[in-house]
Amino acid sequence: GVYRSLDGGATWALVLKGANETSGASDLSIDPSNPRILYAAFWDHQRTPWFVRSGGEGSGIWKSTDAGTTWTRLSQGLPARMGKIGVAVSPANPDRVFVIVEAEPNGGLYRSDDAGKSWRKMSGDRLIQTRSWYYMKVFADPANADVVWVLNAPVTKSIDGGATFNTVQAT
Prior knowledge:
This protein has about 170 residues and is an all-beta fold. About 0% of the residues lie in helices and about 40% in strands. It has strands at about 1-5, 15, 25-30, 40-50, 50-55, 60-65, 70-75, 85-90, 95-100, 110, 120-125, 135-140, 150, 155-160, 165. The strands form four sheets. Strands 3, 4, 5, 6 and 7 form a five-stranded antiparallel beta sheet that branches. It is globular, with a radius of gyration of 16 Å. About 35% of the residues are buried.
């Protein structure tokens, strides 16, 4: 789940719990212009010696505008059933939020330009979705709202708001 402390870390309180026993927080992004605005990605998954499942009712994106006291599930324009998710608020434009979503058949990069109210799929490129069990991380450029990085296998970068991606040499 997602926890917060109001006393500098001495005590912690659970503020957002997974929908079931197989889901939990996989990513968190804080709006740098207003730290009371949080976006949490949850991943519903299960791995046993004989079974691997990624996705279910517990996967999703949640938003808080009051530092985690209350949360709203975001869904308009996102796949109904998702697996692992990464989330990033753009420091250059906090109304722009990116999510990289594992989903069949609608996985890929989604973008919101209205602070999470609605989403549209920007790219379904398989390159940015590979090895989703291990990766699925997205980072927004701090100075340019059209630049977004997806860390996967390999590292990719978009300079057109997430529509197209190029591989970046990682050294």
